[in-house]
Design a protein that fits this description.
Blueprint: E1 17-25, E2 30-36, H1 42-52, H2 78-87, E3 110-112, H3 115-122, E4 127-128, E5 138-142, E6 148-155, E7 159-165
Parallel strand pairs: 3-5
Antiparallel strand pairs: 1-2, 4-7, 5-6, 6-7
Length: 178
């Protein structure tokens, strides 16, 4: 709609700007670095800053320096990842910048399962929830070997259900022993 020149109605919402620093400016452009809450529309921020300065404007470039929860981690370009894969396809040692999937969910509570529950979860079955997992609360689920299985949510009636699995298949190596 915006590309066709149609106005898009946006409801105002309160945002928090943690930091905004002027980097450079000239007669036609302003460059700044900022830190705002996640999910904020950075392009809208550019437009609103221009309006506050009494002019029109838009974002001509946007560069993300980090995403939660990886502020202290190195950013790696897609080209660098592709080059590493091409050069190290058969190596068992991973680079420091390649993190496990569950690193993105480190702030969520951990839920360890026995072999049978692990199998049932991978099959999409609901399981009894631990008392400390509230209805609607999300947690990380792990199998007995401490392998990350995925994300679960506490449901009503004291059950947990799968939100997202991160395993190759439902019937794993422990299928016969469960």
């Amino acid at each position: 709609m915006a590309r066709r020149g149609e106005e898009i109605a946006r409801a105002p919402r309160r945002i928090t700007i943690h930091r905004i620093e002027l980097q450079d400016f000239d007669a036609v452009s302003v460059q700044f670095d900022g830190r705002v809450l996640e999910r904020h529309l950075h392009r809208v921020l550019g437009e609103e800053l221009a309006a506050a300065l009494g002019t029109a404007g838009h974002l001509s470039a946007l560069r993300r320096l980090w995403v939660e929860p990886f502020e202290d981690c190195a950013m790696v370009t897609l080209e660098a990842v592709e080059a590493w894969v091409a050069d190290h396809r058969d190596e068992a040692e991973w680079p420091d910048w390649l993190l496990p999937v569950d690193a993105a969910f480190a702030t969520l509570p951990r839920f360890d399962l026995d072999a049978r529950s692990s199998l049932h979860l991978r099959q999409g079955r609901e399981l009894p929830a631990p008392a400390e997992l509230a209805t609607g609360e999300m947690a990380r689920a792990y199998d007995p070997a401490s392998r990350f299985l995925g994300l679960v949510t506490g449901g009503s009636g004291g059950q947990i259900r799968v939100e997202r699995l991160f395993v190759p298949g439902a019937a794993g190596e422990d299928a016969e022993t469960a």
